[in-house]
């Protein structure tokens, strides 16, 4: 036998196994704690809660996955939520139309094809806009909630105020105050945010710049794996109402698709953490977390959710800043950046932390500081904040938090301040 060829084959096999392992969901890389008894308990809950034709089984990673037939999406959500109350968030597999039968989903899939044809026919998605004409912003901070069971956030409103003050600084930026919609606590209802989306969609033109910032809790990942954004009036009873009454992925996607501006920056300082819902009876599994998880279980915006919200199959994902070319260096004050950008305070499997010392969210504190020190450059502010957030969370909380950025173009460095 050729020893060299044999070694190469072995290496190739090991690489293939490693790639397969890395592609698995994080929870699936561990031994599943889910048992047949858990499946039986969930299936019994389905019968008790009017989900007569649905049931759960193990998926290929020994997570719980929904099977069977469901009357509508609300029934799917109810079943998905019941499963989470037994085994937790990380051991319930996202739902797809291939797994289950839902007549409502069949209708939606048909409408998606016609909608995609309309989007493709526009033909202008890859054309850069002209110089920025007008700037619009929506700034939201929610620290107090209508539902008493949701744990308040100490500094969410302060985060929003910090970002608002940067945008409204007439000596630094060109966001007229009348172009900034500022919503906090009782004002930050789901309908008010939707109205703000509709207003900006009606005003912003192709050459304008639109910014959306929000600091709040996240809801548990839904059946698509998306973390919804909790508004002041988000409801928790029955449990699946948290997805129906929060700022969901569809609302964000409708906004990004509907706004005409070719410059859109979304900054989401939100995440789901179990601690936000510990006082809500029956919301969490026994032990207050997913089976086998620690007390710091949390979930931020995932790359899959970013792709769906931004409406892009391929995103620009940068782990570290690229060196600017000589041409870029000469034009640092030009506002020629464009595209759709989503900035997340943490990655899919992490929390976003507040700091008693900084009296703010750690991410927003450093991101706004980066904007001030870098003439409003989104790219420079992000890469200024990224290592500082990770270091601060590690030293102050003993945890990991790694901000992430996703964009639809390579030239995504938009400026949120006047060129000097």
Structural summary, described in words:
With 420 residues, the protein is an alpha/beta fold. The chain folds into 2 domains: 33-112, Histidine-containing Protein, Chain: A (2-Layer Sandwich), CATH 3.30.1340.30; 135-323 and 335-407, Rossmann fold (3-Layer(aba) Sandwich). It has 12 helices and 13 strands. It has helices at 3-23, 36-48, 73-87, 103-122, 156-168, 190-203, 241-244, 249-258, 303-310, 326-330, 362-373, 378-397; strands spanning 54-58, 64-70, 100-102, 135-141, 180-184, 209-217, 263-273, 298-299, 316-317, 339-344, 354-355, 360-361, 404-407. Strands 4, 5, 6, 7, 8, 9, 10 and 13 form an 8-stranded mixed beta sheet that branches. Strands 1-2-3 form a 3-stranded mixed beta sheet. Helix 5 packs parallel to helix 11 (362-373), helix 8 (249-258) crosses helix 9 and helix 11 (362-373) packs antiparallel against helix 12 (378-397). The longest helix is centred in the first third of the chain and has 21 residues, at 3-23. The protein is globular and about 65 Å long. The model is unreliable at 1-24, 113-124 and 324-333 (pLDDT under 50).
Tally of separate domains: 2
> Nearest-angstrom radius of gyration?
23 Å
Structural class by secondary-structure content: alpha/beta
Total helix count? 12
Q: Report the count of strand segments.
A: 13
- Report the sheet-strand fraction: 15-25%
User: What would CATH call the class of the largest domain?
Assistant: Alpha Beta
Instruction: Extract low-pLDDT stretches.
Output: 1-24, 113-124, 324-333
Report the principal-axis shape.
globular
CATH topology of the largest domain: Rossmann fold
CATH architecture of the largest domain: 3-Layer(aba) Sandwich
- Biggest pleated sheet: 8 strands, mixed
Mean pLDDT: 86
Order of helices and strands: HHEEHEHEHEHEHHEEHEHEEEHHE
Q: What is the CA–CA distance across the termini?
A: 69 Å
Helical fraction equals 25-40%
């Amino acid at each position: 036998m050729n020893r060299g060829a044999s070694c190469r084959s072995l290496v190739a096999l090991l690489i293939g196994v490693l790639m397969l392992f890395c592609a698995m969901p994080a929870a699936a890389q561990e031994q599943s704690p889910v048992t047949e008894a858990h499946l039986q308990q969930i299936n019994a809950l389905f019968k008790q809660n009017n989900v007569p034709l649905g049931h759960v089984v193990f998926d290929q990673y020994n997570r719980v996955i929904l099977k069977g037939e469901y009357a509508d999406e609300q029934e799917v959500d109810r079943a998905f939520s019941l499963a989470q109350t037994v085994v937790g968030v990380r051991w319930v597999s996202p739902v797809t139309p291939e797994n289950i039968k839902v007549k409502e989903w069949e209708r939606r899939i048909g409408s998606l094809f016609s909608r995609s044809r309309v989007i493709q026919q526009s033909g202008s998605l890859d054309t850069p806009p002209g110089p920025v004409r007008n700037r619009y912003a929506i700034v939201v901070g929610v620290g107090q909630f209508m539902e008493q069971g949701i744990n308040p956030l100490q500094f969410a409103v302060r985060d929003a105020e910090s970002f608002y003050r940067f945008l409204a600084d007439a000596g630094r930026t060109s966001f007229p105050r009348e172009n900034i919609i500022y919503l906090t606590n009782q004002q930050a209802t789901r309908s008010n945010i939707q109205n703000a989306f509709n207003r900006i969609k009606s005003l912003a033109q192709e050459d304008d710049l639109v910014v959306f910032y929000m600091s709040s809790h996240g809801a548990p990942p839904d059946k698509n794996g998306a973390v919804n954004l909790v508004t002041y009036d988000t409801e928790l009873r029955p449990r699946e109402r948290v997805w129906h009454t929060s700022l969901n992925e569809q609302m964000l996607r409708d906004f990004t698709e509907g706004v005409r501006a070719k410059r859109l920056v979304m900054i989401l300082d939100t995440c789901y953490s179990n601690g936000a819902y510990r006082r809500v009876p029956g919301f969490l599994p026994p032990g207050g977390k997913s089976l086998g998880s620690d007390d710091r279980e949390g979930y931020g915006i995932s790359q899959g959710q970013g792709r769906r919200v931004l409406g892009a199959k391929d995103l620009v994902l940068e782990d570290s800043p690229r060196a600017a070319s000589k041409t870029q260096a000469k034009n640092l004050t030009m506002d020629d950046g464009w595209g759709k950008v989503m900035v997340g305070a943490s990655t899919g499997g992490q929390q976003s932390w507040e700091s008693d010392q900084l009296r703010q969210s750690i991410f927003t504190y450093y991101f706004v500081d980066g904007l001030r020190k870098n003439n409003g450059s989104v790219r420079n502010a992000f890469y200024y904040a990224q290592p500082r957030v990770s270091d601060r969370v590690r030293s102050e909380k003993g945890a990991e938090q790694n901000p992430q950025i996703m964009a639809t173009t390579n030239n995504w460095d938009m400026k949120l301040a006047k060129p000097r």
